[in-house]
Queue: 3 jobs
Job 1
Amino acid sequence: MGARWASRDGDRRIGRRALLVGGAAVAAGTAVLARDELSGLWWRAPGVAKPRKEGEVDYAGARWVAASDSNWRRADRPDDYGIDMVIVHVTQGSFAGAVRAFQNPAHQAATHYIVGRDGRVTQMIRELDVAYHAGNRSYNERSIGIEHEGFVDRPEDFTDAMYAASARLTAGICARYDIPVDREHIIGHVEVPGTDHTDPGPHWDWDRYLRLVRRAATKPA
């Protein structure tokens, strides 16, 4: 997430441009939305609603707490947008603080998951939906975002329990979407083009993390 908790990006433009759909501007042919943007608006059409169960999670070890719907965009991934990436974030704050921020509609950002120092996992957005977390619309559409409780300049925040829980979570995501377990597909927020964030920072042990993800992937479910 980074120090300023700011991840607004082009996803917000979809909401504003969607107001033109069904209006006089469309009838007159003066507004044109790209095909990929229109595909993301399927759920706005009358009578179309993908069945969802309240409180359902994608990762069995997670507890569900819903983010504000101002902080994500409803989608039908991977059918409308393929998922090929996991993005690692650090909250720059507490677990509870991250949950509160993602429940706040004014925050305008959230990740799919938060992992605590103690290894607990909370899911706040369904994987099939697009979370506003990367600060880059294309990366948001193709990725799952995972926050980790702590601060980038405090290596002690990255506990054994956190690494293990996050690795199990990421291994499951990679298995569901056939994502390679490597540094091209599991990246830090700092590596997203156009971002000004620095997380997960220099103390995040990527070699250790990828080893744990690979190990978790080989264990029976």
Job 2
Amino acid sequence: MGAIEAAHNVRVLGSGDTTVVLGHGFGTDQSVWKHMVPHLVDQYRIILYDNMGAGTTNPDYFDFDRYATLEGYAYDLIAILEEFNVDKCIYVGHSLSSMTGAIASIFRPDLFHKLIMIAASPRFVNTVDYYGGFEQEEIDQLCDAMESNYKSWISGFAPLVVGGDMDSVAVQEFSRTLFNMRPDIALSVFRTIFTFDLRHFLARVTVPCHIVQSSKDLAVPVAVAEYLHQNLGGKSIVEVVATEGHLPQLSAPELTIPVLLRHIQHDIVDA
């Protein structure tokens, strides 16, 4: 097993001619795709991996400087694709990884056939002319809460983000993967995500982008999906799904997975 494969817990399933790569968001790991994989494995070659810093990775490998920007994650993704001789993959990225895929596609557009972006945001903080969904003070308060009592923070954060109470299976699952992260790493990744501004990158993304968005997502307003659509450099399409929460592939798979499969199977048709 190669160093990249081992570090990111890379798994390759299925054996189709087309490769689908699944990238997870903050606070989760590749297990977030458990409802989706069975629908893909008979038709596609699937590559699953864990972002550095996920609770399933070795915390000693987490470089706080490298992962202070999304470029660090993008270079990791490119290294994985090169290691497994991937060409023109369909990349399905959730949240953090949707933007990681976008940046990687700027560096190496040849590696991507299209991007499917779930709950994607180029910036979470509001500005005078942009609505990202959060005020800076709210982000600061969340970071303070994480630092003071990480376990307590999870019990409040997970239900809000997933959309449900602590008894729901999806909230429990997200809480589990959040709890598996080392608190200082979780705080660092959280800060990176909630302070980045990737709007200036969007015009350079020329790979087709399929933007899939929950109709009610605490972290990403629907307006952000439309902003992406208007500002990406290549073809794009938006589909708003009648789901609640930031992790619809986990909390509402019966609604979300058919939509994702449709976007995997069909390219954007010129109107």
Job 3
Amino acid sequence: MSADPYLLVTDLHAGYGAAKVLHGLSFSVAEGEVTAILGPNGAGKTTLLRALCGMVKVRGEIELGGTSVAGRAPEAMARLGVAHVPEGRGTFGQLSVEENLRLGAYRHRDRVRIDADLRRVLDYFPVLKERLGEAAGGLSGGQQQMLAIGRALMLRPTLLLLDEPSLGLSPVVTQELFQIVHTINQEERTTVIVVEQNAHLALATAHHAHVLETGRIVLSGTAAEIRADERVVQSYLGYQV
């Protein structure tokens, strides 16, 4: 573990009612790093992200920047700079692209700052700049995913949680999207945790990775170490495009 982690998770348990999904997860994430979460369907990856942003009840400890945040509501986590882009994107189809983006800045009141953030986000996603006035529902799947990430960036997050960003996207769009995530991490030093089925791309972007199975971490290490592990090669990398 990092000597001074930005995110420190200790003995984390979470689930839905009587159904327990996470069983004692412990890991840390250094500030400004990208961490990939890999694992089969049903391993608890989405539940982990929901636990980190306050969407499910947890037992255990979550520290963010040295502050205990376990049990805080999603709104409180957002105020602390945690932005969650869920699987399925969650854009508002009837609203314009610009309206969707500005919704991401709901906790800010400084219009000058919001306008500056909008320009900053559109620099990352120039395709959205061309369609600002159009309804978000008319965007392609890849553009909607860019919009969802752009809306999260309007929060000026210190921790960005991405759940299956490549789901349903073509390989070309997926490559472009991960390159943008890499650029955001490098330029803004945003800490990123990404849940992703495309292990090749996730490990190419990440600094560290954890493999989950049935709600437990079964393998952890640097991205290079995980990429070289025979179990990962056989289970994940051998089946990726």
